[in-house]
Amino acid sequence: MDTRYLERLYHHIDHRPDAVAFRSFDHAGSLTFGALDERARCYGAGLKALGVSKEDRVVAILETSLSLPVVLLGHYAIGAVHVPVNTRYGEVEIAHILEDSGARVAIVDTSHKLSLLRALRAANPGLLEHLVLLGEAAEDVNEDLGELTFESLAQSAPLEARESLEDEDLAMFIYTSGTTGKSKGVALPYRAILSGIDSLTTLWRWSEDDVLVLALPLFHVHGLGIGVHGTLLRGCETVLHERFDAGDVIASVKDGGTIFMGVPTMYTRLVRALEDDPAAGEVLAGARLFTSGSAALSSDLFEAFERLTGHRILERYGMSETMLTVSNPYPPEQRKPGTIGFPIPACEVEIRDEEMNLCEPGVVGQIVVKGETVMREYWGAPEKTAESFRDGWFLTGDAARYDGDGYIVHVGRRSVDILKSGGYKISAREIEEVISRHPMVREVAIVGIPDDEWGQRIGAALVIEDGDDTSRDASWWADELRAFVEGRLADYKRPREVILLEEIPRNALGKVQKHRIDFGA
Questions:
Q1: Which residue from 47, 301, 353, 391 lies 20 to 30 Å from 252 (Cα-Cα)?
Q2: Tens of pLDDT, residues 447-466
């Protein structure tokens, strides 16, 4: 039985029980590694008494709190599969996950989501056996509906021993973020989760002396994967923020934070805060490491943050199906803006063309991955699983190229970020990088609009800076952008159509959801 990663997961729990693992930003509470484990084993024992056992799925719709890592480890303690759900999802999305995963139990902590789950169960009586209620949701518990409070379960005597598990046993289902369509359940064994996080946090030199400022949502690879699992693997202390606020992050770093992980939208807001208060840049300069992922980080944002703080953001790449696979080097002078870096030691990553030949530098191909970090399967979808592998490689669907120094440059999703217009293959990100330099453009998303003659027309969805002349309509902006990119891009890369939006649609991790941008007929 090979349990080397699981042994590492519990190392600090077993050997440093009195060290603080998690605390809240407002200092209202904290959990030592030992207290975390004991509370998790009590909750796990309560679930086990309900009949939940190894590889049963438990859906967690939870806001960030100290209870969340307890719930995660409680599921691991009995071998149940943790199924985190985006807290911003609505009825259709949650119903799909409940049905697709076949979950027996769901745990929820807000009254709004409790009402939604009750409505779904009323419409489908076979959906779920129990609801476990935390926080404000627990104030409205209805035992006649098979509902229990988390506290009642956690009153159980703690498990004497954790379930005997192997690294290949299922740990978690992460449902894809839906950037291109209906979400799929990515079935991840412990091996896939822990190998990559162990490798990545080793590369980033995390240690017991670090304090992680964690303001990411805890339902996906970035916050839950690196943040929570990284804390357990490296034994650092993590400060949990219920939501991202630039001022709160700066305060956390001032209070001793050494690492911050964010997404580009967070760094955009941090840069604005630093421009308003230059002294805050000196505060952030005192941290050790800033990383970015989940969406591409522009070179302009990289350079602005470096100018204001002295820190060169370390960009990395991963996805639900492969966890974390590529990272820029740790030494700051080796971090290259506009790139995602090199494969981490836990896996192999290459860029290959349609015939699976290795791409030469400068040639755009597809990122393919093999190794310990790769998922087991798409749950209940053997055909989709088979389609996603070729010659032992997982096909990510992400377009990229090597630069002249061997760094990987992420171009975007092949399906939505590589446009085909008039016989040309065009990078949406390249156009976005140029248009984002317009002084009155806050955000831009480039989309391919179906066209009988050209294949696709290039469309630009814009969010304009506050204070711009509101009389300037989409037609005015279409002319303005064509003039702005002239001389900067080839003429066939100019936007042919423009729409103005109040905001670009994104998921909770900041990934642009281009399939939700509607240019009309």
A1: 301
A2: 988 876 677 889 999 999 87
Rounded distance, CA 60 to CA 132, Å?
A: 9
Q: Residue 329: name the closest of 410, 406, 433 by CA.
A: 406
CA dist 67 → 37, 39, 60, 235 (Å): 12, 9, 11, 18
Pairing mode, if any, of strands 347-352 and 365-371?
antiparallel
**304: phi then psi, degrees, rounded to nearest 5:** -65, -40
pTM: 0.83
Residues 482-510, mean pLDDT to the nearest whole number: 84
> Average pLDDT over the chain, rounded to whole?
91
Q: How many CA within 13 A on the CB side of residue 49?
A: 15
User: Is residue 377 within 8 Å of residue 184, measured between CB atoms?
Assistant: no
Task: With CA atoms as reference, report the closest residue to 304 among 313, 315, 295.
Answer: 313
Q: Around Cβ 145, how many Cβ atoms within 10 Å?
A: 12
Tokens of 353: 């063309």
Among candidates 151, 143, 170, 160, which has minimal Cα distance to 53?
170
Quote the CA–CA distance of 210 and 231 in Å, as a whole number: 9
